[in-house]
């Protein structure tokens, strides 16, 4: 079995635009080799927004060299980008955007959330791309609740919704460039669960709600991210309270990580080129707003 290497806790919160209050769990500035293939993880909320006529969120901005994965737990997020992708997702749904060679996008609260107000909770994950794919064509996957298979865990311990990767014969709909598991877990108090995590992979489940005890006796609560050793296979969690967990496990990309703002490449020269290409319009423009 894998052992706990360390527990990552948020260093504090900040706003992304005027619509997303987030706690940053880690970024590519935090010794990125420890979290590879994942580059950044922001936990937005839980919070509540009042009704408004304002368009709250983040306006047009570029990315290159990686993918963004937005998972909504409460509320709505609307997206549009220069690849022609876009749409609005609600609770249990996912936007998986491949920036790759370059994309311009914007993200706002959905019209219903703005009009009616209500609870809001989301996670945004940045997933690195290997050098061979950093200049691939950009794209967008809008993944609805109906597309995400759900499986029951053994002994009534809870359920797992499989966004990417595979569990108990169910395969997630998300296309990924490297092997990874992205699962939405709902775990029931009083159970102990053992989940598969391949040897050699980074495994770092984010606790959103509840309380878990790890095999070494440490307890983790909301906004805690235990990071496990790459040696060994599988992770055992004792569920002390009903818990919601975003399970992340992936094959590391053992390549240099050079990032600046919205671009993550392998060299400084590639970062400079990204800025030049964006400023010259080579990353396209948004022709429609979600």
SSE topology:
Layout: E1 4-9, E2 13-16, E3 20-26, E4 38-49, E5 57-63, E6 66-74, E7 77-81, E8 86-89, E9 94-98, E10 103-109, H1 111-116, E11 118-128, E12 139-143, E13 150-152, E14 158-164, E15 166-167, E16 170-171, E17 180-187, E18 192-195, E19 202-203, E20 206-214, E21 219-221, E22 224-228, E23 235-250, E24 258-260, E25 263-265, H2 268-279
Antiparallel strand pairs: 1-22, 2-3, 3-4, 4-11, 5-10, 6-9, 6-11, 7-8, 7-10, 9-12, 13-14, 14-17, 15-16, 17-23, 18-23, 19-23, 20-21, 20-23, 24-25
Alpha carbon gap, first and last residue: 45 Å
How does the major sheet shape up?
A: 8 strands, antiparallel
Content-based structural category: mainly beta
β content, as a range? over 45%
What does this molecule look like?
This protein is mainly β. 6% of the residues lie in helices and 51% in strands. The chain is built from two helices and 25 strands. The protein has helices spanning 111-116, 268-279, and strands at residues 4-9, 13-16, 20-26, 38-49, 57-63, 66-74, 77-81, 86-89, 94-98, 103-109, 118-128, 139-143, 150-152, 158-164, 166-167, 170-171, 180-187, 192-195, 202-203, 206-214, 219-221, 224-228, 235-250, 258-260, 263-265. The strands form six sheets. Strands 13, 14, 17, 18, 19, 20, 21 and 23 form an eight-stranded antiparallel β-sheet that branches. Strands 2-3-4-11-6-9-12 form a seven-stranded antiparallel β-sheet. The radius of gyration is 18 Å and the shape is globular.
Short recap of the structure:
The protein is mainly beta. It contains two helices and 25 strands.
């Amino acid at each position: 079995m894998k052992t706990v290497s360390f527990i990552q806790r948020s260093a504090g919160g900040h706003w992304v635009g005027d619509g997303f209050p987030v706690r940053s769990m880690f970024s590519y500035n935090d010794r990125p080799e420890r979290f590879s293939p994942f580059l950044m993880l922001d936990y937005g909320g839980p919070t509540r927004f009042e009704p408004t006529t304002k368009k709250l969120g983040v306006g047009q901005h570029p990315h290159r060299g990686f993918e963004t994965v937005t998972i909504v737990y409460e509320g709505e997020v609307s997206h549009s980008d220069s690849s022609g992708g876009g749409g609005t997702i609600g609770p249990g749904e996912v936007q998986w955007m491949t920036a790759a060679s370059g994309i311009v996008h914007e993200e706002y609260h959905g019209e219903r959330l703005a009009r009616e107000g209500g609870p809001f909770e989301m996670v945004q994950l940045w997933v690195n791309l290997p050098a061979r794919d950093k200049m691939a064509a950009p794209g967008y996957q809008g993944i609805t609740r109906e597309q995400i298979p759900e499986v029951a865990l053994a002994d009534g311990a809870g359920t797992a919704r499989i966004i990417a990767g595979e569990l108990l014969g169910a395969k997630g709909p998300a296309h990924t460039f490297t092997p990874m598991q992205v699962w939405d877990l709902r775990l029931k108090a009083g159970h102990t669960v053992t989940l598969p995590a391949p040897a050699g992979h980074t495994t770092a489940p984010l606790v959103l709600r509840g309380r878990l005890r790890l095999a070494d006796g440490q307890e983790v609560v909301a906004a805690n991210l235990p990071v496990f050793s790459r040696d060994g296979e599988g992770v055992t969690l004792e569920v002390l309270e009903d818990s919601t967990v975003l399970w992340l496990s992936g094959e590391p990309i053992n390549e240099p990580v050079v990032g600046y703002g919205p671009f993550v490449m392998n060299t400084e020269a590639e970062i400079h080129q990204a800025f030049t290409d964006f400023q010259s319009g080579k990353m396209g423009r948004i022709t429609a707003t979600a």
